[in-house]
Amino acid sequence: MSSSGSTYGDIHRYEPARESTAAAIAIVLLTVIEVVFVFMFAYGLVSGWGLTETGNMFLGAILAVIFVDLAFILALYRKEFLPDVVIVKKRRRKWEDLYIREEDVDGETIGDGAWDTVKRAVYPYYKR
């Protein structure tokens, strides 16, 4: 679904999410695995696995698996259950810098408002 609107904030393209059942089942299974590893990590911390050298590496590996599993859950959710929306944004000119205001595009004369120029150099967002 596309629109021809060109004003700021208009939806240019909207593609609904696929919402597949296989992805939902995969997310549920990955969540169960995530909970098991979190409980295993918590049990390892409470029982003192981190006091030995191999136990500390084992806890680190469990923590790595937890974050990798969470990354897969979030990637599946983003790909399968969030719509693809493109909105119209305000375009900036390539040469435009964050510190240049639109009325100062042609530059400033040296000597007019020298103190204000120093203030802007020290604090760029002065009177923005």
Structural overview:
Pfam families: DUF7318 (PF24002). The chain crosses the membrane at residues 21-45, 57-77. InterPro entries: DUF7318. Keywords: Membrane, Transmembrane, Transmembrane helix. The chain has helices at residues 21-47, 53-81, 114-122, and strands at 11-15, 84-87. The chain is mainly alpha-helical and 128 residues long. The protein has a two-stranded antiparallel sheet with strand order 1-2. Helix 1 (21-47) runs antiparallel to helix 2. The longest helix has 29 residues, at 53-81. The model has no long low-confidence stretch (mean pLDDT 80).
Helix content: 40-55%
Strand percent estimate: 5-15%
Radius of gyration over all CA atoms, rounded: 27 Å
Describe the main β-sheet briefly: 2 strands, antiparallel
What separation lies between the terminal Cα atoms? 38 Å
Q: Figure out the total of helices.
A: 3
Count of strand segments: 2
Pfam families: DUF7318 (PF24002)
Keywords: Membrane, Transmembrane, Transmembrane helix
InterPro entries: DUF7318
